[in-house]
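Suppose you are handed a protein chain with no further information: no name, no annotation, nothing but its sequence. What can you learn? This example shows the usual starting point.
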Amino acid sequence: MHPILQYIKHHMLIPFIFGVLFILSFTLEPIDQMFEGFINILLSKSILVSDYLLIGGLAATLFNVSLTVLLNLLIIKWLKLKMTGPIFAAILTIAGFAFFGKNIFNAIPMYVGIYLYAKVSKTPLKNYILVLLFSSGISPIVSYIMFGIGLNLSIGIPLALVVGMLVGFILPIFNAHGIKFHQGYNLYNTGFSMGVISMFLTAILSVFVTIERSAQVENQYHLPLLIATLVISVMMIIYAFILDPKVSNKYPILLKNSGRLISDFVDVAGKPATILNVGLMGLFSIAIVLGLDIKINGPVMGAILTIIGFGAFGKHPLNSLPVVLGAILAVWLTPLELTLGPILAIFFVTGLAPLAGRFGFIAGILAGFVHLLITPLALAFQGGFDLYNNGFAAGFVGAIFASLFVIIKPIKDEKQF
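A reasonable first move is to predict its three-dimensional structure. Written in structure tokens, the prediction is:
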């Protein structure tokens, strides 16, 4: 097999998918217009919610997505790491949030900070690969200090770089303790850790400036993004059967897993079954979009790609459905409306899927219901600098419900945190 094809196979089609998006970004608009949109993305505040489709257009956003994925693939190759379920989830999450708030530039300071921590602690950088990959979720702090608070660039740029590197430096230390808080029932563990750090940064910044957030999104690309999601999902399913025609026999092994951290589905059921689940989680996301008549914009596309990615790392249809239903019921049974915040919570609530996988259907519904109510409060606390706001909220929901449910259904033969 040709080395390039071998590389694509080992990386579960990621290089192929985002390579196509890179090429496609040059065909959708005139190149000068695409680059102008890309510059607008790089210069944006990027705080939640900054829809890059609105700020830069579709071509520039796809260019940003593919470049950001390429950077992280190069880091993985440099560290000589294999494509595991967690790394796959991280790459797809990075791709998703490159639609709204994360770009090729504002993520780098956090990476440098983690690199420096590895050097100081005399630990191989590969030990922190997941923290590094997910750390870009707090990258808006870099963009906001540079371009959002009115500082002269000669002050704003170095200050933003220092703050970003400092956040990256402390994140590995804090993240190791975060998982103990929610006992592994929040798949977005780094999002919880960054939410706490973001809360402190927000408290400091808000003394000097008024932190303004926007909820404007661009819905005009709904249909092409829906079609792209469908194509990627079906392609993954077909690829799974190409790798193993009997993959459906192994898939039930994956479905029996609770998804509790750390559940690498590649180790649990093999790569073909994992790829099959990834494709099915894509169809699961499409069902939510069509069932609730949701328009796909930058943030929603980010949520969909995150769900697809975590199809390799903790999420499957059986443990995701209860928490999603709970979140939907929270909208239907309360005065809340199906605006952007609740819509994103309905998708991202799947970070609590392990609660349903471990404690059952009703437990999942209850957790999903409460999560949707807590999410806007979490955003107010952390100010919008943590793109994984639902991960911040899910940390609290996971901690509370896991502590309650374990009394009813004690844990046996499971790793304790």
